[in-house]
TrEMBL record:
Protein name: EAL domain-containing protein
Organism: Acidithiobacillus montserratensis
Amino acid sequence: MKPPQQASWRFPEDLLAYFQPEYSINQQKIVGIEALARMRDASGQILSPDSFIPFLDMDERRELSRLMLVAGLQVLESLDALGIFLNLSFNVDPDFMVDHDCATCFTGTMATSPIAPSRISLELLESGDFLNRDIAKERLLALRATGVRIALDDVGSAYSSLLRMKDLPIDKIKLDQGFICDLCAQPKNLAFVQSIQLLANTLNAELVIEGVETLPILDAMRALHQDHVQGYAIARPMPADALLTMLQSGY
Ligand code: G
Ligand code: G
Protein backbone atom coordinates (compact mmCIF):
# COMPACT_ATOMS: atom_id res chain seq x y z
CA MET A 1 0.00 0.00 0.00
CA LYS A 2 1.29 3.46 -0.84
CA PRO A 3 2.08 5.85 2.04
CA PRO A 4 -0.48 8.67 2.26
CA GLN A 5 1.73 11.74 1.78
CA GLN A 6 2.75 13.06 -1.62
CA ALA A 7 6.43 12.58 -2.42
CA SER A 8 8.60 15.54 -3.52
CA TRP A 9 10.20 13.76 -6.46
CA ARG A 10 9.22 12.42 -9.87
CA PHE A 11 9.81 8.93 -11.18
CA PRO A 12 11.81 8.25 -13.26
CA GLU A 13 13.14 11.80 -13.76
CA ASP A 14 14.74 12.10 -10.31
CA LEU A 15 16.04 8.52 -10.12
CA LEU A 16 19.78 7.99 -9.60
CA ALA A 17 21.80 4.80 -9.88
CA TYR A 18 24.42 4.18 -7.20
CA PHE A 19 26.83 1.26 -7.20
CA GLN A 20 28.44 -0.63 -4.34
CA PRO A 21 31.48 -2.84 -5.05
CA GLU A 22 31.65 -6.53 -4.22
CA TYR A 23 35.17 -7.53 -3.17
CA SER A 24 36.99 -10.86 -3.39
CA ILE A 25 39.21 -11.40 -0.35
CA ASN A 26 41.07 -14.22 -2.17
CA GLN A 27 41.74 -12.21 -5.32
CA GLN A 28 42.22 -8.97 -3.35
CA LYS A 29 40.22 -6.99 -5.85
CA ILE A 30 36.75 -5.77 -6.69
CA VAL A 31 34.93 -8.39 -8.75
CA GLY A 32 31.44 -6.95 -9.06
CA ILE A 33 29.04 -4.09 -8.42
CA GLU A 34 25.48 -3.95 -7.10
CA ALA A 35 23.20 -1.30 -8.61
CA LEU A 36 21.27 0.44 -5.82
CA ALA A 37 18.48 2.90 -6.50
CA ARG A 38 18.45 6.40 -5.04
CA MET A 39 16.10 9.36 -5.56
CA ARG A 40 16.92 13.08 -5.50
CA ASP A 41 14.06 14.99 -3.88
CA ALA A 42 13.05 18.61 -4.54
CA SER A 43 15.46 19.88 -1.85
CA GLY A 44 18.37 18.01 -3.44
CA GLN A 45 18.49 15.38 -0.70
CA ILE A 46 19.37 11.84 -1.80
CA LEU A 47 16.74 9.36 -0.61
CA SER A 48 17.28 5.65 0.01
CA PRO A 49 14.90 3.03 -1.45
CA ASP A 50 12.89 2.61 1.76
CA SER A 51 11.75 6.24 1.35
CA PHE A 52 10.50 5.99 -2.21
CA ILE A 53 9.90 2.39 -3.33
CA PRO A 54 6.68 2.16 -1.25
CA PHE A 55 5.31 5.03 -3.40
CA LEU A 56 5.89 3.13 -6.65
CA ASP A 57 3.30 0.81 -8.17
CA MET A 58 4.29 -2.56 -9.60
CA ASP A 59 4.81 -1.28 -13.16
CA GLU A 60 7.05 1.48 -11.81
CA ARG A 61 9.01 -1.05 -9.74
CA ARG A 62 9.62 -3.13 -12.83
CA GLU A 63 10.76 0.01 -14.67
CA LEU A 64 13.00 0.86 -11.68
CA SER A 65 14.71 -2.54 -11.97
CA ARG A 66 15.04 -2.18 -15.74
CA LEU A 67 16.58 1.29 -15.39
CA MET A 68 19.05 0.01 -12.78
CA LEU A 69 19.96 -2.80 -15.19
CA VAL A 70 20.47 -0.30 -18.03
CA ALA A 71 22.65 1.94 -15.82
CA GLY A 72 24.66 -1.05 -14.61
CA LEU A 73 25.25 -2.36 -18.13
CA GLN A 74 26.52 1.07 -19.16
CA VAL A 75 29.02 1.06 -16.29
CA LEU A 76 30.20 -2.45 -17.17
CA GLU A 77 30.66 -1.42 -20.81
CA SER A 78 32.74 1.62 -19.76
CA LEU A 79 34.85 -0.56 -17.49
CA ASP A 80 35.27 -3.30 -20.12
CA ALA A 81 36.72 -0.61 -22.42
CA LEU A 82 39.31 0.09 -19.70
CA GLY A 83 40.14 -3.61 -19.35
CA ILE A 84 38.33 -3.89 -15.99
CA PHE A 85 35.86 -6.79 -16.11
CA LEU A 86 33.25 -6.84 -13.34
CA ASN A 87 29.94 -8.58 -12.73
CA LEU A 88 26.67 -6.75 -12.05
CA SER A 89 23.82 -7.36 -9.59
CA PHE A 90 20.48 -5.57 -9.69
CA ASN A 91 17.39 -5.85 -7.47
CA VAL A 92 13.94 -7.04 -8.50
CA ASP A 93 10.87 -6.87 -6.29
CA PRO A 94 9.91 -10.52 -5.62
CA ASP A 95 6.20 -9.60 -5.47
CA PHE A 96 6.51 -8.53 -9.08
CA MET A 97 7.67 -12.02 -10.03
CA VAL A 98 4.41 -13.58 -8.79
CA ASP A 99 2.38 -12.22 -11.69
CA HIS A 100 5.05 -11.51 -14.29
CA ASP A 101 7.51 -13.49 -16.30
CA CYS A 102 10.73 -11.57 -15.62
CA ALA A 103 12.58 -13.51 -18.28
CA THR A 104 10.73 -11.56 -20.97
CA CYS A 105 10.97 -8.27 -19.00
CA PHE A 106 14.74 -8.12 -18.99
CA THR A 107 15.96 -10.10 -22.00
CA GLY A 108 15.14 -7.24 -24.39
CA THR A 109 17.28 -4.87 -22.33
CA MET A 110 20.14 -7.36 -22.05
CA ALA A 111 20.03 -8.05 -25.78
CA THR A 112 20.90 -4.39 -26.47
CA SER A 113 24.19 -4.76 -24.57
CA PRO A 114 27.38 -6.65 -25.45
CA ILE A 115 27.67 -7.73 -21.80
CA ALA A 116 27.12 -11.50 -21.44
CA PRO A 117 24.05 -12.36 -19.30
CA SER A 118 26.25 -14.73 -17.28
CA ARG A 119 27.87 -11.61 -15.78
CA ILE A 120 24.52 -10.41 -14.42
CA SER A 121 22.80 -11.50 -11.20
CA LEU A 122 19.19 -10.73 -10.49
CA GLU A 123 18.73 -10.23 -6.74
CA LEU A 124 15.50 -11.19 -5.02
CA LEU A 125 14.72 -10.42 -1.41
CA GLU A 126 14.24 -13.50 0.72
CA SER A 127 11.15 -11.87 2.28
CA GLY A 128 7.82 -11.73 0.51
CA ASP A 129 5.57 -14.47 -0.65
CA PHE A 130 7.04 -15.23 -4.05
CA LEU A 131 9.57 -17.88 -3.03
CA ASN A 132 6.85 -19.89 -1.32
CA ARG A 133 4.61 -19.88 -4.40
CA ASP A 134 4.40 -22.90 -6.70
CA ILE A 135 5.24 -20.62 -9.62
CA ALA A 136 8.64 -19.61 -8.15
CA LYS A 137 10.65 -22.53 -9.50
CA GLU A 138 9.22 -22.18 -13.02
CA ARG A 139 9.88 -18.42 -13.08
CA LEU A 140 13.44 -18.75 -11.78
CA LEU A 141 14.27 -21.54 -14.24
CA ALA A 142 12.97 -19.37 -17.10
CA LEU A 143 15.18 -16.53 -15.92
CA ARG A 144 18.18 -18.81 -15.58
CA ALA A 145 17.59 -20.04 -19.13
CA THR A 146 18.30 -16.49 -20.33
CA GLY A 147 21.81 -16.88 -18.89
CA VAL A 148 21.48 -14.60 -15.83
CA ARG A 149 22.32 -15.80 -12.34
CA ILE A 150 19.80 -15.80 -9.50
CA ALA A 151 20.82 -14.31 -6.17
CA LEU A 152 18.84 -14.45 -2.95
CA ASP A 153 19.25 -11.19 -1.02
CA ASP A 154 19.21 -10.50 2.75
CA VAL A 155 19.15 -14.22 3.56
CA GLY A 156 18.52 -14.72 7.26
CA SER A 157 16.36 -11.60 7.62
CA ALA A 158 13.08 -13.46 7.13
CA TYR A 159 11.75 -16.79 8.21
CA SER A 160 10.71 -18.37 5.01
CA SER A 161 12.69 -20.23 2.61
CA LEU A 162 15.26 -22.57 4.08
CA LEU A 163 13.11 -25.50 3.01
CA ARG A 164 12.16 -23.87 -0.26
CA MET A 165 15.73 -22.96 -1.13
CA LYS A 166 16.74 -26.54 -1.76
CA ASP A 167 14.12 -26.81 -4.51
CA LEU A 168 14.93 -23.51 -6.21
CA PRO A 169 17.63 -22.69 -8.75
CA ILE A 170 19.80 -20.28 -6.73
CA ASP A 171 23.33 -19.35 -7.76
CA LYS A 172 24.21 -16.86 -5.06
CA ILE A 173 23.19 -16.23 -1.44
CA LYS A 174 23.74 -12.82 0.15
CA LEU A 175 23.80 -13.03 3.93
CA ASP A 176 21.81 -10.27 5.62
CA GLN A 177 24.01 -7.57 7.08
CA GLY A 178 22.22 -7.88 10.43
CA PHE A 179 24.36 -10.91 11.17
CA ILE A 180 27.57 -9.13 10.40
CA CYS A 181 27.19 -5.58 11.73
CA ASP A 182 27.23 -6.69 15.39
CA LEU A 183 29.65 -9.55 14.79
CA CYS A 184 32.13 -8.41 17.40
CA ALA A 185 29.37 -8.04 20.01
CA GLN A 186 27.90 -11.45 19.25
CA PRO A 187 30.55 -14.07 18.44
CA LYS A 188 27.85 -16.70 17.88
CA ASN A 189 27.17 -14.93 14.59
CA LEU A 190 30.49 -16.38 13.41
CA ALA A 191 28.99 -19.86 13.78
CA PHE A 192 25.98 -18.64 11.85
CA VAL A 193 28.20 -17.54 8.96
CA GLN A 194 29.73 -21.02 8.89
CA SER A 195 26.26 -22.63 8.87
CA ILE A 196 25.18 -20.46 5.96
CA GLN A 197 28.40 -21.39 4.14
CA LEU A 198 27.46 -25.07 4.53
CA LEU A 199 24.00 -24.28 3.20
CA ALA A 200 25.52 -22.44 0.22
CA ASN A 201 27.83 -25.39 -0.46
CA THR A 202 24.88 -27.77 -0.39
CA LEU A 203 23.01 -25.60 -2.87
CA ASN A 204 26.14 -25.20 -4.98
CA ALA A 205 25.70 -21.45 -4.57
CA GLU A 206 28.23 -18.67 -4.01
CA LEU A 207 28.02 -16.86 -0.66
CA VAL A 208 28.36 -13.09 -0.39
CA ILE A 209 28.68 -11.51 3.06
CA GLU A 210 26.94 -8.12 3.23
CA GLY A 211 27.45 -5.36 5.80
CA VAL A 212 31.21 -5.81 6.22
CA GLU A 213 31.42 -2.42 7.85
CA THR A 214 34.84 -2.38 9.56
CA LEU A 215 38.33 -3.78 9.07
CA PRO A 216 38.02 -6.12 12.12
CA ILE A 217 34.92 -7.64 10.50
CA LEU A 218 36.79 -7.98 7.21
CA ASP A 219 39.60 -9.75 9.10
CA ALA A 220 37.05 -12.04 10.77
CA MET A 221 35.65 -12.97 7.35
CA ARG A 222 39.16 -13.70 6.08
CA ALA A 223 39.77 -15.93 9.11
CA LEU A 224 36.55 -17.81 8.28
CA HIS A 225 37.86 -18.33 4.72
CA GLN A 226 35.07 -16.23 3.28
CA ASP A 227 35.77 -14.81 -0.15
CA HIS A 228 33.09 -12.42 -1.48
CA VAL A 229 32.17 -9.48 0.76
CA GLN A 230 30.33 -6.19 0.43
CA GLY A 231 30.24 -3.30 2.88
CA TYR A 232 31.53 0.06 4.05
CA ALA A 233 34.97 -1.44 4.88
CA ILE A 234 35.42 -1.83 1.11
CA ALA A 235 33.32 1.08 -0.19
CA ARG A 236 29.96 2.75 0.26
CA PRO A 237 27.41 2.88 -2.56
CA MET A 238 28.46 5.68 -4.95
CA PRO A 239 27.55 7.26 -8.29
CA ALA A 240 29.02 5.77 -11.48
CA ASP A 241 31.62 8.53 -11.99
CA ALA A 242 33.02 8.06 -8.47
CA LEU A 243 33.14 4.30 -9.02
CA LEU A 244 35.01 4.69 -12.31
CA THR A 245 37.50 7.06 -10.67
CA MET A 246 38.07 4.64 -7.80
CA LEU A 247 38.59 1.64 -10.10
CA GLN A 248 40.85 3.56 -12.49
CA SER A 249 43.03 4.57 -9.55
CA GLY A 250 43.78 0.85 -9.20
CA TYR A 251 41.66 -0.06 -6.17
O1 G B 1 20.97 1.05 -0.71
P1 G B 1 20.13 0.72 0.50
O2 G B 1 20.83 -0.04 1.60
O3 G B 1 19.43 1.90 1.08
O4 G B 1 18.98 -0.25 -0.08
C1 G B 1 18.04 -0.77 0.77
C2 G B 1 17.31 -1.86 0.04
O5 G B 1 16.58 -1.34 -1.08
C3 G B 1 18.24 -2.88 -0.57
O6 G B 1 18.49 -3.88 0.36
C4 G B 1 17.48 -3.39 -1.75
O7 G B 1 16.81 -4.59 -1.42
C5 G B 1 16.46 -2.32 -2.05
N1 G B 1 16.75 -1.79 -3.39
C6 G B 1 17.79 -1.03 -3.79
N2 G B 1 17.70 -0.76 -5.11
C7 G B 1 16.57 -1.39 -5.55
C8 G B 1 15.93 -1.52 -6.82
O8 G B 1 16.40 -1.02 -7.85
N3 G B 1 14.76 -2.23 -6.86
C9 G B 1 14.22 -2.81 -5.75
N4 G B 1 13.07 -3.48 -5.86
N5 G B 1 14.81 -2.73 -4.55
C10 G B 1 15.96 -2.03 -4.44
O1 G C 1 20.02 -4.97 -1.54
P1 G C 1 20.99 -5.03 -0.40
O2 G C 1 20.47 -5.63 0.86
O3 G C 1 22.26 -5.67 -0.85
O4 G C 1 21.39 -3.52 -0.09
C1 G C 1 22.50 -3.23 0.61
C2 G C 1 22.20 -2.01 1.44
O5 G C 1 22.98 -2.03 2.62
C3 G C 1 22.53 -0.72 0.71
O6 G C 1 21.48 0.16 0.88
C4 G C 1 23.73 -0.15 1.42
O7 G C 1 23.66 1.24 1.54
C5 G C 1 23.69 -0.82 2.78
N1 G C 1 25.02 -1.18 3.20
C6 G C 1 26.02 -1.63 2.42
N2 G C 1 27.14 -1.88 3.13
C7 G C 1 26.83 -1.59 4.42
C8 G C 1 27.59 -1.66 5.64
O8 G C 1 28.76 -2.04 5.68
N3 G C 1 26.92 -1.29 6.77
C9 G C 1 25.62 -0.88 6.75
N4 G C 1 25.08 -0.53 7.93
N5 G C 1 24.89 -0.80 5.63
C10 G C 1 25.48 -1.15 4.46
